[in-house]
Specification:
CATH class: Alpha Beta
Order of helices and strands: HEEHEEEEEHEH
Largest sheet: 4 strands, mixed
Distance between the termini: 19 Å
CATH architecture: 3-Layer(aba) Sandwich
Shape: globular
Radius of gyration: 15 Å
Strand order of the largest sheet: 3-6-7-8
């Protein structure tokens, strides 16, 4: 199967996106998707520019039967491998860190999904804004090679 056929088949697999807090999806990507933040728009649009296929908030059911919704489920076409991409955009909020970041990180770790292997994480807070170019090399290494 050619890479293009593989990508089209992967993208055609239907999924039910995260329906939690749809009112927070008020930003629009170049693909016309509604996402939760300007940073997620930047990520989605750059993934598109780089030619990296992705799904936004596709469900991932872990071995412990907990379902989480990675921000982006990306496909490394050359390796035919799925990589999860999480952007943690409110790291300055202690409640967000405890409730969302640490909880999700524990879920990934318990499922054997480790940063640098099958997981990319990016971060920002009020004082440290997201800059895609700071992460571009990491993203290209995991998703294009």
């Amino acid at each position: 199967m050619s890479d293009e056929e593989f990508v089209q088949k992967w993208l055609a697999i239907p999924y039910e996106p995260n329906l939690k807090h749809p009112e927070n999806k008020d930003q629009t990507t170049a693909n016309g998707e509604k996402v939760r933040s300007k940073s997620e728009v930047i990520i989605a649009d750059n993934l598109k520019i780089l030619g990296i296929p992705y799904k936004y908030e596709a469900p991932l059911t872990l071995p412990n039967n907990i379902t989480i919704y990675p921000d982006f489920t990306c496909l490394n076409v050359k390796r035919r491998k799925v990589i999860y991409y999480e952007h943690f955009g409110r790291m300055g909020d202690p409640e967000y860190r405890d409730r969302d970041f640490f909880w999700k990180l524990r879920q990934y770790e318990s499922a054997g999904i480790i940063q640098g292997k099958k997981l990319i994480m990016t971060f920002e807070d009020e004082d440290h804004h997201f800059d895609f170019s700071s992460y571009k090399n990491t993203i290209e290494e995991h998703l294009l090679k």
